[in-house]
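Researcher: Batch entry, complex prediction.
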Amino acid sequence: MSKFKVAVVGAGAVGEEMVKVLRQRDFPMSELTILARSNRKQMIDGIEYDVKETSADAFDGIDIAFFAGTEGARGASQVFGWMAVEKGAFVVDNGDDFRMDPRVPLVVPEVNGDAIANHQGFVANPNCSTIQMVHALAPLHAIARMKRIVVSTYQSVSGTGGAAIKELQQQAKDYAAGKKVTHDIYPAQIFANLIPQISSLRDDFDGYYGEEIKMIKETRKIFGIDDLAVSATCVRVPVFRAHSETVNVEFEKPITPDQARKALAGWPGIEVVDDPAAGRYPMPLFAEGTDPTYVGRIRQDSCNPNTLDMWVVADNIRKGAALNAVQIAEMAIEKQWIGNRK
Ligand SMILES: NC(=O)c1ccc[n+]([C@@H]2O[C@H](COP(=O)([O-])OP(=O)(O)OC[C@H]3O[C@@H](n4cnc5c(N)ncnc54)[C@H](OP(=O)(O)O)[C@@H]3O)[C@@H](O)[C@H]2O)c1
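Model: Structure tokens for the complex:
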């Protein structure tokens, strides 16, 4: 099998997990380069790596580049993403910068993997909250077309990156020691609290914060339904890792919970954990470090037979980021939508 020269750009929460996932899945690599903002040694999963400062030259000869840098004008994707494509790399980007760009397929392999075929060298990973929701909706949408989705999220601090994990740890320590609890990353203390704001307000959707708008727009792009009714409320919770969501979804015709369980259980990457009488349902603590999207609490909406309620949990750094990105590259290789340079 061909082997690829791989770069991971960004060595924070997602970049580190990317390196781990590549190794765990025995990704066909002949070389692995890790790039960030500065040269240094960094321990990742028990191995010391030479992390190099990102530059245009660093992409010479790279076949596949996984971008996990911060977003925005000075972030890795905007500065180096398309440059890497011009140099011949297949880019999979974790950030938000190009997700809605018409040139860029936005992909969850188990949902719309075929979209990768039309790539122009650059494929985007959806937002972590979107990935797990669309993953759980796809098997149901295949039975009865979706009409309307109402989602509320319970998002862990690792979704904000390494600095937010440290902030929650510090706040927990300070609180336990009876010290004054301070905050820097979030608009308020997150320990022992919930913050119904992720990202900032924007003009295009009145009253919605940025993360909610991402869920709405990305879901429409992934399913290819421009007028799909989606509403989202995104909440940051004092959980370290794995996001949870309540999803209320209306279909064009009724689906019973048993039909839904069967369809979900047979879908790649989904694990149904649904025995409410025994107190068995997915929880973020137990999803941490694992690959599936877990679905439970599946029930008919008591007010509408065409509507189901469910509870969806996944590790935001694995399925919500690193794993999904690696799966995109694996699928592109398997289907021969990319090749390595001779
Ligand atoms: N965390 C999640 O759950 C999640 C889920 C889905 C998508 N994402 C997205 O994935 C990306 C990474 O998130 P994260 O949580 O890993 O963030 P993070 O922990 O803050 O790490 C960001 C990394 O990006 C590097 N970086 C920033 N600007 C760069 C540039 N111009 N050139 C090269 N490297 C640059 C940083 O380098 P230094 O270490 O040298 O500072 C750092 O290693 C973000 O776009 C985020 O939105 C995150």
